[in-house]
Design goal:
62 residues, mainly alpha, 82% helix
């Protein structure tokens, strides 16, 4: 199992859902929705930290 998929599996377990493969994801609409929310969350966290870092750099240059 790939690292990314095992991370995803852990997330689903925390929601009480089971996802051991991308095939499970394709079949199960609820899993797909949870996965998309999770991806958005991860993406947002990454963007927030990038934004915070660039703001620090800008204020350091002033």
């Amino acid at each position: 199992m790939s690292k990314a998929l095992s991370d995803v599996s852990q997330v689903f377990k925390s929601y009480g859902l089971k996802c051991d493969s991308y095939k499970d994801l394709e079949k199960d609409y609820e899993l797909q929705m949870t996965y998309q929310k999770w991806q958005l969350l991860v993406h947002k966290k990454t963007n927030d930290s990038v934004t915070a870092t660039s703001e620090k750099l800008v204020s350091a240059n002033d």
